[in-house]
Design a protein that fits this description.
Pathway: Carbohydrate biosynthesis. Belongs to the triosephosphate isomerase family. InterPro entries: Aldolase_TIM, TIM_sf, TrioseP_Isoase_bac/euk, Triosephosphate_isomerase, Triosephosphate_isomerase_AS. By secondary structure, the protein is an alpha/beta fold. The chain has one domain: Aldolase class I (TIM Barrel, Alpha-Beta Barrel). The protein is built from 10 helices and 9 strands. β4, α2 and β5 form a beta-alpha-beta unit.
């Protein structure tokens, strides 16, 4: 039986002055979060890792406003979030572009938190499984190794709306996505893939959602800027 390590990401989005970042880092450093060590390097404990919210789909160059995977690697930023619905919807990123970005980031030594998820209209048409499978399949066509990928299921209708998928809805999508990986990628990848949930996750709902066997953590938006984030980081620990 696989024991997947619980994974929680905090997506600060377009937030954070210097003073606000210092306050959040202090909160994380002082939070009662189980970790292998308590050494503080710069502002954060070393058991917390930093992620970029986006990167370019290829080598750097004349792409004003973008940041390349090479630049992130050079800055020792180990993770990047790709395919977030805000990038897909506001910036017009297609499945193909997200797949291209993912492959290039992995090839340049980054780890990827790959976001997938459906709109409210797609859910109401019972297309959730097909949408998530389509988005994941685009990436599967471009990469061979999934060891440095975490998949975040984020129903678009639940991001920043206060609405949240029920624990049963989250488990169903995660289970079906794992089954898709088993059929179309490999049983090994399916068993070891961390599939995390995002969409109005709070201290109040994280324990129930995190208790599901196929929910391996969270990608947290607004709550990652607050002290509630410590409770979310500890969601799985509360189950034992």
């Amino acid at each position: 039986m696989c024991s997947r390590k619980f994974f929680v990401g905090g997506n600060w989005k377009c937030n954070g002055t210097v003073d606000e970042v210092k306050k959040i880092c202090c909160m994380l450093n002082n939070g009662e979060v189980p970790c292998p060590n308590h050494i503080v390097k710069s502002m954060l404990r070393t058991d917390f890792q930093v992620a970029a919210q986006n990167c370019w789909k290829g080598k750097g160059g004349a792409f004003t406003g973008e940041i390349s995977a090479e630049m992130l690697a050079n800055l020792h930023v180990p993770w990047v979030i790709l395919g977030h619905s805000e990038r897909r919807q506001l910036c017009g990123e297609t499945d193909a572009i997200v797949a291209e970005k993912t492959a290039y980031a992995l090839d340049n030594g980054l780890k990827v938190c790959l976001c997938v998820g459906e709109t409210l209209e797609e859910r109401e048409r019972n297309e959730t499984g097909a949408v998530v499978a389509r988005q994941t399949a685009a990436v599967a066509s471009k990469i061979c190794c999934w060891a440095n990928v975490v998949i975040a299921y984020e129903p678009i209708w639940a991001i920043g709306t206060g609405k949240v998928a029920t624990p049963q809805q989250a488990q169903e999508v995660h289970y079906n996505l794992r089954k898709w990986l088993d059929c179309y990628v490999s049983p090994h990848v399916a068993m070891n893939m961390r599939i995390i949930y995002g969409g109005s996750v709070t201290a109040a709902n994280c324990k129930e959602i995190g208790a599901n066997p196929d929910v391996d953590g969270f990608l947290v938006g607004g709550a990652s800027l607050k002290e509630d984030f410590i409770a979310i980081l500890n969601a799985r620990n509360y189950q034992h």
